[in-house]
Amino acid sequence: MRPPVILLAFLLPAAAASQPSPWTGAETCGRCHPAQFRTQSASEHAHALYPAAQHPLAAKFPTRNALRRAQFDFRIVLESRGLLIRISNADHALVLPVDWAFGAGDQAVTFVSRTAPEQYREYYFSYYTRTGSMDVTPGQEAIPAMNLDEAAGFVHRGLDGLQCFECHSTGPVDISGGIFRPREPGIRCEACHGPGTDHASSGGKAPIRNPRRLSATSLNDACGKCHRLAPAPGSAFEWDNPWNVRFQPAYLSRSACFRRSQDRLSCLSCHAAHEPLRRNDPAYYNRICAACHEARHRQPAMQDCIGCHMPSVSPRAPLAFVNHWIGIYRDRKTSPIPRR
Asked: What is the pLDDT of residues 111-120, one digit of tens each?
């Protein structure tokens, strides 16, 4: 028997429900800012969350012999009514709907479904783009499974899974009735600029948040709300754990480049706010590094600043994360902490 689930009621006053929303959506922003809307729509942030069957990579999800877990077999089924997962063993089978696909698929896509009010299952398997195959979702490798339901994946109860939706969507998540309803899937304009209805309706006269006006520390903290805040001085943090390298603001805060920048080096120093990552353009990042380090490294000697000073760390194949603890690495394949 499952333990009882304690449900929390989040009810809006009736008067508040009739108020116009301060959130306008990216399409409205794009009417006045078409260039930014176009490039941001192609970014990984914009594709952070989809209804599962609508994910751009849905057609590539393997539908035969997806994965095996002990005595359980998994198979993806994509049909007109949506994305389904079939879990079976020698005696029984269980078919479950897949509601949401988390992640743009730059590295992986993880699947989530609602199982009860304020209860969401993170499926045991994820799709890994580099291999084009299904494999175990990180963090679930050691979780035991005694039956089909347990084999399906880990269940988040109460509000444990809410932050997943908050960090993969824009605007407040409606959780009335125990159902998480993202206002706008993906990280879009208002995730960084704040509610835009007043700004849009006033023709741009009403003020709106501009992250560029923040100090580097404040801006990195804003990104860190989802990408992980830098730990407070003296607090415990496993810096040598390869899995933690994916927390970019935390590792950037440790680098000499940031500490000596006099609060100028931020996420936006290297990453264009409205564009996808330039993974195949090392020259772009080299030019940014050279703006401060030109005297030390001049072309053509400087070939790949990132590869040497921000090496990729792979906690588990095929995943790899760029280490934002900028430094000098003599053993970069074995440790996420630089020598200096």
From this structure: 999 999 989 9
